[in-house]
Amino acid sequence: MVVRGQLRPAATRHAIAVPRANIVTMAGTLLGVLAGGVLARRTQERHWLKDTEAEAYAAVLREYTRVEFDLRMAHVERRAPKVDWAPWGAAPTALSLVAEDRAVSAAEQLARTFVSMEAHLHNAEPQQ
Predict the structure, then answer these.
(1) Within a 10 A sphere around the Cβ of 117, how many other Cβ atoms?
(2) What is the Cα–Cα distance from 59 to 66, expressed in whole angstroms?
(3) Which of helix, strand or coil describes residue 128?
(4) How far apart are CA 91 and CA 108, in angstroms?
(5) CB–CB of 91/62 below 8 Å?
(6) Strand partners, 7
């Protein structure tokens, strides 16, 4: 288009009017997507924590059963216990990373009880 011998700039030649309602709708959609992403992440973190906590509890129970069985068999067979303590030590440590303090304290009490049982089976005083 010619105005007094000059062309109008391209931006004014083909300007598209965007209704205000469309802008509000786009902004609302963007905010909804962002809020949904935050909520989804939070939910996934909770699920991960619950799953990890359940695995830690299962490991403590599994290792408790193994150590208790080894100590009980040593007592029944009247022999010195041969317990692999590394897996037991790892289980309460993993539990301490995700569980409540009450559960960790209970696992620590079990560990002290195991030490006392092993010392009794070795006919020695438990270490303090």
Answers:
(1) 19
(2) 10
(3) coil
(4) 11
(5) yes
(6) 2
Q: Is 116 helix (H, G, I), strand (E, B) or coil?
A: helix
| The pLDDT of residue 99 | 92
Structure tokens at 67: 């150590």
Asked whether 7 and 1 are in contact (CB, 8 A), the reply is yes
Q: Give residues with Cβ within 8 angstroms of 115, minimum separation 6.
A: 126, 127
> What pTM was computed for the model?
0.65
Can you read off the two tokens belonging to residue 122?
């070795």
Tell me: the pLDDT tens digits for 60-85?
999 999 999 999 998 888 888 888 99
**Nearest alpha carbon to residue 64 among 45, 46, 90:** 90
Going by C-alpha positions, the residue among 69, 99, 97, 96 that lies closest to residue 83 is 69
